[in-house]
Design brief:
homodimer; Aminoglycoside 3'-phosphotransferase, Chain: A, domain 2; 2 domains; 9 strands
Chain lengths: 319, 319
């Protein structure tokens, strides 16, 4: 779940007084989300999401995230739009946290991915990549390849508690990934976390993208690799080539991949797998008893990583 | 949080096809609640709550709870109203769980109780007690006095892990409470869990009561004692007599207490305190690592219990 910070009704009323969106009608914590506290907020003028930014988010980066969402929304990407207070500021303070109100998006995220979800995700991802052009500032990807070795070091001593030999396997895989990490591929603003719970569908159509708080400036095709990992594996950890092909073809219909980008897919997918494996491993080893968050199994991404390590080229992904 | 059971979009669509409430527009897990999985559901015809009943609820008792909510709603108590399917049934199945849709109530539960909340709670509780009359079936209160000794036995061996001497203190207190538990007081349907997170306010007025899944047939004034414990203590565990008096006076304006009920307030409050102490103690000792639920400190109720054990009569509560 994600309600780490409680908001008193007095504080909420005072907070809303700085906006032109009416007064509170309903206010419920949202179970989804891991990083921040999210509330569903209904006012007399409509529905909104109130987010309180928790410890993992660097406050100095919040204007970048909110600015990206505004930039993308103006370019026709359906994503939450920050609501500005009467003084013009969207990023504000509430209950000792940085906080923002964004618009509410209709739709339901797919609990079980079907092949027909994958083409819309590919199209939306390509549109997001093109839509991000012109957003001038860059944000370094703290969870990109430069971050993976330090992340592994934080878990290495206890990694074998999760699986015997895991520490050595990760060390070896990471060395190979970093040695062959592609240089010179097109860079842009990426979502970097476009998992199913961040994509809404309504009446069979993609209705919006949410949760841009891992967004960064990095290799665009790495974002494709994240989505291949997140959307195209079956519960038995086999790659569903139909899903992968649908996603890649739809992506390419909007933003064609260069030969170099296609050739880099296996190592980009390895990198994406190890990135989620490493954060899950750290969380697995460090989630205290009674925590509010469900620990996600890091080994699901070890299985994906092993697949990608065996992929000889982009044909492994159906193209 | 409370989303233990995920619902796929296909299952949700099929489920809604059995109702006359349109098709899904939005579907989000709700963070509040501990016992069941709750979703905020918006359809093309309005807003609803979808509840999936989890392990702690006995399926055989669900019709009683839903029936009570319908009975109360007809009597003017603002509470969730079960929505019936086309076949007339409100209690249905979804994702391997019993499930029901109820109406959405506007309002916000008070994160910080102020004195002005307490009179409306007292009035609403009395109205609920009167409104429950005529609902014919009784439900034994599994968490009433007969349940407390067995509950203590389940935690006794490890109680002193929480506080040295706790086992003996609880044993002694419980023996006294059960020996002086009142007989012959008016019985009716009680909410039994009317904590602040189950009471909504809107524009300074009480706008609804939720979560009837601990409701039972028991001493009406015991329900008052639960509310005194839940609403009238300060963070330093002192009783706020202003709050208690406001609650009791407002209750009595709708349903006056007899002399015997007033005289029983101290022992009823002791019982209510030990009831929440015992369930919290059990949960504290048995909540597994990685659990979705925040463990609530049982000792908050030990402090209340000690207060009530020193209360000589009802004047301790401001009346």
């Amino acid at each position: 779940m994600a309600v780490y910070t409680e908001v008193t009704d007095e504080a909420l009323t005072a907070f809303l007084a700085d906006f032109d969106i009416g007064s509170v009608v309903a206010f419920r914590g949202i179970a989804e989300g891991v990083e921040n506290s999210n509330y569903s907020l209904r006012t007399t003028s409509g529905d909104f999401i109130l987010t309180l930014y928790e410890k993992r988010v660097d406050p100095a980066e919040l204007p970048w995230f909110l600015g990206l969402m505004e930039h993308l929304a103006k370019r026709g990407i359906v994503c939450p739009l920050p609501v500005h207070g009467r003084d013009g500021a969207a990023l504000r303070s509430l209950s000792g946290r940085h906080a923002a109100i964004t618009t509410f998006l209709p739709g339901v995220w797919p609990r079980r991915v079907r092949p027909e979800h994958c083409a819309p995700v590919g199209s939306a991802l390509a549109a997001l990549h093109l839509g991000g052009e012109g957003y001038a500032q860059a944000r370094r990807n703290a969870l990109g390849p430069h971050g993976w070795r330090p992340l592994l070091e934080r878990s290495r001593a206890r990694a074998d508690e999760v699986l015997d030999g895991l520490s050595r396997e990760l060390d070896s895989a990471l060395t190979g990934i970093l040695a062959t990490w592609p240089q010179g591929l097109p860079i842009g603003h990426i979502h970097a976390d476009l998992f199913p719970d961040n994509v809404f569908f309504l009446d069979g159509r993609l209705s919006g993208l949410i949760d841009f708080y891992f967004a960064a400036t990095d290799i665009l095709t790495y974002d494709v690799a994240v989505c291949l990992n997140a959307w195209c594996f079956e519960p038995d950890f086999s790659l569903n080539v139909t899903k992968a092909r649908a996603m890649l073809r739809a992506y390419e219909a909007t933003r064609p991949l260069s030969e170099a980008e296609r050739a880099a897919l296996p190592v980009l997918c390895q990198g994406a797998a190890i990135r989620f494996l490493l954060t899950r491993l750290y969380d697995w080893l460090n989630t205290p008893p009674g925590a509010l968050v469900v620990r996600k199994d890091p080994l699901e991404y070890l299985r994906r990583l092993r697949f990608h390590l065996l992929a000889r080229d982009e044909h492994a992904y159906g193209i």
